[in-house]
Amino acid sequence: MKRVLVAFASKRGSTAEIAQAIADTLQEQGLSVDCREAGDIRSLQGYDAVVLGSAVYIKRWRHDGKDFLGRHASELARLPFWVFSSGPVGDPDAPSDPAWLEPPRIIERASALGARDHVVFGGRLPLHPRGPIERAMAKGIPEQFHDRRDWNEIRAWSIDLAAEIQAATAAARG
Ligand SMILES: Cc1cc2nc3c(=O)[nH]c(=O)nc-3n(C[C@H](O)[C@H](O)[C@H](O)COP(=O)(O)O)c2cc1C
Fold it and tell me: Ligand 1 mean position to 97 CA, how many Å?
């Protein structure tokens, strides 16, 4: 059975939940999946494919997500891998700066290493805001837009991803 790593960098838990939902769907589709914090991974040995996701804060990925790309660059360049960001909250119809959603240099780096896709999933503000910035964001955003994660979208993406992983790993085997 093909082994897949879903690695995530999350500060307040919502990206971890997205990663777990992806992992559960991949598993349902017949893959063997580990879902782990990006900062805990020492080696990619034994994995046939990798999915890496990070929360976005002030137009940046979390340190552990960014660091993962650097530390495992040579292994990632050899493996099929996919990337997601989790971020946008607030009114989906309000205009937003593209750099707010997708930190451009991270995406360039991932693409240079051969990432096959990068997707942005809606995020979620912390359930219990801490500190003045989180509290101001929570106050400024209508409650119905605090959690923009779309579980149907995440599941549909993961089902397609499972098929892509099966195809990519079968091709790698020759
Ligand atoms: C202080 C702060 C800054 C944020 N900056 C961004 C940002 O630049 N771009 C974005 O899309 N989302 C931004 N968000 C939304 C978070 O990315 C979103 O809440 C995400 O789901 C948090 O993930 P986590 O719970 O895994 O830490 C920000 C949220 C906070 C509280």
Answer: 14
Q: Give the residue, out of 12, 18, 56, 97, with the most ligand 1 atoms within 8 A of its beta carbon, to mutate for a pocket test.
A: 56
| CB of 101 sitting under 6 A from ligand 1 | yes
Q: What does the pLDDT look like over 156-165, one tens digit per residue?
A: 999 999 999 9
Picking from 115, 107, 17, 20, the residue whose alpha carbon sits closest to that of residue 60 is 107
Architecture of domain 3-173: 3-Layer(aba) Sandwich (3.40)
Q: Dump the DSSP string for 39-73.
A: GG----TT-SEEEEEEEEETTEE-HHHHHHHHHTH
Say if ligand 1 is within 6 A of residue 10 CB: yes
On whether the pTM is more than 0.90, the answer is yes
CA–CA distance, 113 with 39 (Å, rounded to integer): 19
One-letter amino acid for residue 170 of the chain: A
**CA 149 to ligand 1 center in whole angstroms:** 12
Residues in the chain: 174
Domain boundaries, the chain: 3-173
Q: Per-residue pLDDT tens for 57-67?
A: 999 999 999 99
pLDDT at position 171 over 90: no
